[in-house]
Design goal:
The chain is built from seven helices and six strands, in the order βαβαβαβααββαα. With about 180 residues, it is an alpha/beta fold. It has two domains: about 130 residues, 3-Layer(aba) Sandwich (Rossmann fold), CATH 3.40.50; about 40 residues, no CATH class. A four-stranded parallel β-sheet has the order 2-1-3-4, with helices on both faces. α3 links the parallel β3 and β4.
Length: about 180
Amino acid sequence: MKKKVLFIVNPFSGTRSKERKAELIRAYVSGEAFDYEIAFTEAKGHAVELAARAVTESFDYVVAVGGDGTMNESARSLVNTPVALGIIPMGSGNGLARHLKIPLDTVASLRMLGKANVVTIDSVTLNGTPFFCTAGAGFDAYIGLKFEGKTKRGFQAYVQTTLGEFFPTSLICTD
């Protein structure tokens, strides 16, 4: 029996080209094994809504295609439901995907979907919002907030943001 899958694609996450995300899904996800839909997020918080719809429409899997933010938003609506989360890491950090040993290569991670190795992970709720990867307080949280508003992504942009905030009078260019 085919599994019903909703791919939630964040076209703005990470540092890699986004034009081919839907093409790659169509090319490497078996239509014989999966009935799937592809939905693109339009704004912050939209993945939460899309994943909630997947729960009410009895999807088997929600696959977050993006970074840790996309994954966190998608997973929030899946807590204590029978819908499993999949991750196609395309963000700038991909912390949870790395921890779960999901390949960072898009094609390799898409091919893993056929194996559907479902594991249970912990979540934590902070200020009424579940999260699944990392949380910070103080300076760490401040940097996360500043980085979120940046147009440049990746390790170098993160370091520049951190140094620019730690040494605000320096000549570091922070976008």
